[in-house]
Amino acid sequence: MKSHEVASALALLVGVVAGQKSAYEQCGGIGYSGATNCVSGYTCTSWNPYYYQCYPGTSTPAPSTTSTTTRVTTTPTSTTKATSSSTTKPSTTKVTSSTTSKSSSSTKTSTTSVPSSAAFAKTNGLLFNIDGVTKYWPGTNCYWCGFLTSNGDVDAVFADMAAAGLKIVRVWGFNDVNTLPSSSSTTVWYQYLSASGSQINTGTNGLQRLDYVVSSAQAHGLKLIINFVNNWSDYGGMNAYVNAFGGSTLTWYTNTAAQSQYRAYIKAVVSRYSTSTAVFAWELANEPRCSGCDTSVIYNWAASTSQYIKSLDSNHMVTLGDEGFGPLTGGDGSYPYQTSAGGYVWQDNLNITTLDFATFHLYPDSWGQPYDWGNLWVSTHGAACAAANKPCLFEEYGGNNNCTIENPWQKTALSTKGIAADLFWQFGDTLPSCNCQTSQDGNTVFYKQGNWDCMVTDHVAAINSAYP
Ligand SMILES: *[C@@H]1O[C@H](CO)[C@@H](O)[C@H](O)[C@H]1NC(C)=O
Ligand SMILES: *[C@@H]1O[C@H](CO)[C@@H](O)[C@H](O)[C@H]1NC(C)=O
Ligand SMILES: *[C@@H]1O[C@H](CO)[C@@H](O)[C@H](O)[C@H]1NC(C)=O
Q1: 52 - beta bridge partners?
Q2: Is the pTM of this model over 0.70?
């Protein structure tokens, strides 16, 4: 919190000068009275009569259409270059200030909270609108991105993702511990959980690592899904709350002490990036389950937590992060289509108005299903999302990094109304700081290696040709 306030003060000092508007700032619209010309490489672009924005490129796209600026995604390097000059390799303390300065400086020229709502990712019917473009989007998972200790590694990973045409990147926004690391430890942790006093680590081995991820995503034109807790015990998770506050992972959802600290943590993270356009959405949990619970437990927790997040931040979307279990029209009644699998009914949760879109995952071999069953799983979720008029994010999928298995799921997702984006599990890369490879869990697709082309390059090309 403290660094955030300092950052805002700095922003006020640097924000006032320009007669030209910088990247993504407002440059026109009804009620606007600031400068209307943009810095080199950007054009003042009309999204609607109320909002003109400095957008990459030199020609002006037609106003208020959603498809004419699609080229931005196919040339991510132009976005990268344009915005990275001020944010390349900042120290971790400057990260927040550069992120915040954009918004605060824009505040001067607009009456609404800034950046204008047009600059934030949002739903548009059954698709997502990102930077003014509505289409189907490709993405990936990088749970470890916020745990990297080298800024150069984060930049290298995001540069590769952007060069590949990926857009939405899901990262863990949690890293919970029950033992307080020594003050000299460089191990990354975000939150220490204890009944006798929890701590949120805003230091250089704490949320400043996530700050850098947000800053680098901004520089590379990527959009982040940031998740607040794990169902599983990796990086702490609900079990770390249970260790601190008692109960069980099943009562975690209703345990007052656990929920109060969970909300304190959410508030700490959301307030750091509530004005960042690099955030795609906040996510309640990774794969929450409550086996054997009444389905109202997860429903009520998801409804109240998402309401809470909206009360803190009305700029960003909120989603659940669940696997998509429960009975579904058109399903075959197999285990994943049963209420027992997750202790919730995915379809019921679609009516929670403070959840902007729905998520589902796909791991047939973990669930005892044949691989081609995945197409039914994708299409039934899409149909339910279409019926609920809410986009579905196909958020994780893995079939042993085998294109024969996974390409059909990708094709089904792209052609199913109601599915708005897919994020393969998981991205892999070689980190420059150690010349070493990132986590290989059997489903990792390493950048430009192995099955990279048939899993990623071809799919991105198919998406771009379906949404030119
Ligand atoms: C995650 O979900 C499973 C399935 O309901 C449950 O058994 C487990 O206790 C949960 N939490 C953890 C920490 O594994
Ligand atoms: C949403 O779904 C739940 C669970 O099926 C149901 O109890 C509730 O009445 C629904 N609410 C609305 C507003 O449709
Ligand atoms: C990929 O999956 C297909 C279908 O299950 C299988 O026939 C093939 O052997 C797999 N390829 C590899 C390299 O494992």
Answers
A1: 28, 46
A2: yes
